[in-house]
Design a protein that fits this description.
It is a single chain. By secondary structure, the chain is mostly beta strands. The chain has one domain. It is built from two helices and seven strands, in the order αββββαβββ. It has a seven-stranded antiparallel beta sheet, with no helix packed on it. Strand 5 and strand 6 form a beta hairpin. Helix 1 packs parallel to helix 2. The termini are far apart.
Length: 189
């Protein structure tokens, strides 16, 4: 068996503080696809924060605007509902009272999502997360335009058709655009 050296070993001593980049560095040295699981151990920390500003403008707060910003360090494996490290979104909601449907709402929002340099490099090297990674990434910011209408069908039932237009889905300029249609139903008891 050949002796393991710094340049030939798939393991890097002293790199426990690096996550995505540690996997990508190993991939570069070995020529293998990066695997985030090689760095799994208890006690890892993913830090970040968010800001949510909602400003009611009229109609008892049912017409208003919002701004949301989010950031995480992007150096560790994602573990939530999506793989996003940087985000900004802005939107407006208008009460249906303006067209004699005071319990209805219409809204439009725009979002811009991105990845940290470490996360992006990991995916560019062929790595995969839990929803991203199809071999090679041609990085581009993900841009999303969303519109919805929330319609009160019955006293306790709201139906909300939704449409999203997504440029660079999965942060990949080689994909999309994607058109996503949805329907939400809310029943109150």
């Amino acid at each position: 068996m050949p002796e393991a050296t710094w340049s030939s070993s798939p393991f890097s001593l002293g790199r426990t503080g690096e996550r995505w980049s540690g996997c990508s560095d190993t991939s570069t040295r070995t020529g293998q696809t990066p695997d985030i699981r090689q760095d799994d151990h208890p006690g890892r920390i993913k830090w970040g924060g968010g800001l949510n500003i909602e400003q009611p403008l009229a109609d008892a707060g049912e017409t208003g605007v919002f701004l949301r910003l989010g950031y995480n360090d992007g150096k560790t494996e994602s573990f939530a509902f999506t793989e996003v490290d940087r985000l900004a979104s802005v939107g407006v909601q208008l009460s249906g009272g303006h067209w004699r449907r005071p319990t209805d709402r219409v809204g439009i929002a725009y979002a811009l999502d991105g990845l940290s340099p470490e996360h992006r490099h990991y995916l560019e090297q062929g790595g995969a997360g839990f929803v991203l990674g199809d071999g090679r990434l041609t990085y581009g910011l993900e841009r999303i335009l969303e519109v919805y209408y929330n319609w009160q069908l019955l006293r306790y039932v709201h139906v909300s058709p939704d449409y999203q237009y997504i440029e660079n889905p999965g942060y990949n300029r080689d994909r999309g655009p994607a058109h996503v249609f949805g329907l939400r139903v809310r029943v109150s008891f």
